[in-house]
Amino acid sequence: MSSQTAPDANRWKALAFIAIAQLMVVLDATIVNIALPSAQTDLGISDGNRQWVVTAYALAFGGLLLFGGRIADLWGRKRAFVTGLGGFAAASALGGAATNEAMMFGARALQGAFGALLAPAALSLLAVMFTDAKERAKAFGIYGAIAGGGGAVGLILGGFLTEYLDWRWTFFVNIPFAIVAAAGAYFVIREPEGGRNRSSLDIPGVILSTLGLVSLVYGFTRAESEGWSDSLTIGMFAASGVLLLAFVIVEAKVKAPLLPLRVITERNRGGVYLSLGLAIIAMFGLFLFLTYYLQVVKGYTPVKTGFAFLPMIAGMITGSTQIGTRLMTRVPPRLLMGPGFLVAALGMLFLTRLEIGSSYAAVLLPGMLLLGLGMGSAFMPAMSLATYGIEPRDAGVASAMVNTSQQVGGAIGTALLNTIAASATTSYITDHMGGAASKSQQQLVQLEGMVHGYTSAIWFAVGILVAAAAIALTLINAGKPDMGGTVTGSGERDGEDVPIPVVAH
């Protein structure tokens, strides 16, 4: 086992600033959704174009993540982190000051691009600064809670800002976050020596991965609005398949690949990326359905809707910082991730019972609490294992893969589950509208159809979470981290467990 240098004395202060930056990026994914109707009216954005406020961000963020991770390895994570924060703040100011739709879409794409630099740098800084197993468990517990719960916090904050101030504040609020995090990082973070990857940049890999991921994310986004049989949707998926296949072939052959295949072919990391991506598919779709259910069916205000998500946040924080952190050094990661995803599936199962008159306390509260607990318990070891034992030169790109699986999972989840819900709603209304004579009966059938669509899609989400649990339990075979800094049982060689050493930094 390699000797380790003394841990950085400022690592816990650094964690605070990294957590602020991570919260800002995660908040931004949901905070704008609540502000979107007001922004659309103010800027005169058409119904056909309004999705670009969300899509422009998702395409830039998802498409550039691997490039951002590699830049962090090349430049140094601290520099990439501070640059990403500065750029994100400037793009947020531009979005808040937008006077037309082009300015808004441009600002969102810029936010996504700088987010793609910032997010992998943040996670890889944690990976190289916290090497002791117990400390790493605590640090990733906090990070996992923010990564999971930040989206729901965005719904509350977005509701408050939109309802009591102005939609523009959903952008301006990022600026103080970014300034505090950048100033703190500049003075506090001291990156371990020898962790940079100074190989030349793999330009073909950058182009192929960016175009491939953009095509994939746009294909799912377009499927949501135009349908799966739309010719451009099919073309995007075909192009994505060809580009990503070409990317894998190039990465296997070039001397200094953008994404070294060793990062994803190691079975534990591969298992984390796959199971985490699936779990995010289930969760992102649910955020959307519950927001609409609470606001349209139940008539909640934006602020009340945000507060209704609090049990999920509480569950995630508890699962991540209490269950995950306490058990991570005692049990193998798969025994936290597998059962965690199953508990989340049980929470989803509660939510399949949704009806127009469902009680919040009887159905939504236990469902969201279980979902949060399960996801929090699973997220935390997943985030840690995805970068555990990685060579320092690959830390940025391994972190980027975590973010990529989440971002692509989010895009797939929103489109796939939305499509399932929409078709179930349409068929329900078609079957039942004939018996509705009065206008009030017709409105009732439409609301029932909407809720039927949501529950149909939630059943799919239950299945997806069970699949994520199965992948985590079968693919991930790392043992528990011991106090000396190794993970035992990572693989087999002649029938023996092979330890993963923690690389000295």
Automatic annotation (TrEMBL):
It comes from Streptomyces vulcanius. PANTHER family: BLR6921 PROTEIN, MAJOR FACILITATOR SUPERFAMILY MULTIDRUG TRANSPORTER MFSC. Keywords: Antibiotic resistance, Cell membrane, Membrane, Transmembrane, Transmembrane helix, Transport. Residues 14-480 form the Major facilitator superfamily (MFS) profile domain. It is a multi-pass membrane protein. It comes from the Bacteria. It is found in: Cell membrane. The chain crosses the membrane at residues 12-36, 51-68, 80-98, 110-130, 142-161, 167-189, 201-220, 232-250, 271-294, 306-323, 335-354, 360-383, 457-476. This is MFS transporter. It holds the Pfam family MFS_1. Residues 483-505 are annotated as: Disordered. InterPro entries: EmrB-like, MFS, MFS_dom, MFS_trans_sf, Sugar_transporter_CS.
